[in-house]
Design a protein that fits this description.
Length: 149
């Protein structure tokens, strides 16, 4: 899925009232690892659902389905490049949920551009006001018809 599609992050099979820690890790531009942490308390059915539950501690507050993703910070504490330079490279996030000393792992992929999208640097000559930009074009066969600018 594309990066702007929210995911459903749910942990089941916990003891009611158990505390579970969730760590999210994503390798981003230049290979820098970004991560976040949050702790939750399971409901009476032994479930934690990030679309419904706020963390009791961690890197963000309040209910947010993607809180463990958007609250990530670079492990080196200084990286500024959030996305890979090539938009064709997806971001893979690994989630680790730990409760009572046991851990489970899951991962998902976020794409920055749909399949077939191409990236073109725009660099106008100096005598044309130094226009600089990046143009992303969809695959005309996969996405025919007029498109807004």
């Amino acid at each position: 899925d594309l990066i702007d599609v929210s995911r459903s992050i749910v942990v089941t099979g916990l003891a009611p009232g158990a505390q579970v820690g969730i760590v999210a890790q994503t390798r981003r531009s230049n290979g820098v690892l970004w991560h976040s942490r949050a702790a939750f308390v399971a409901d009476a059915q032994g479930t934690v659902n990030l679309t419904r539950d706020a963390p009791v501690s961690g890197d963000y507050t309040g209910v947010s389905a993607m809180g463990v993703i958007w609250s990530q910070r670079p492990e080196d504490g200084k990286a500024r490049e959030v996305f890979p330079l090539a938009v064709t490279e997806p971001l893979t996030t690994t989630l680790t949920a730990t409760a009572n000393g046991e851990s489970i792992h899951a991962s998902f992929v976020q794409r920055l551009a749909a399949p077939g999208v191409t990236r073109h640097d725009v660099r106008a000559p100096e005598n044309e006001y130094g226009l600089v930009g990046t143009l992303y074009l969809p695959d005309p066969y996969a996405h025919p018809g007029p498109r807004p600018a």
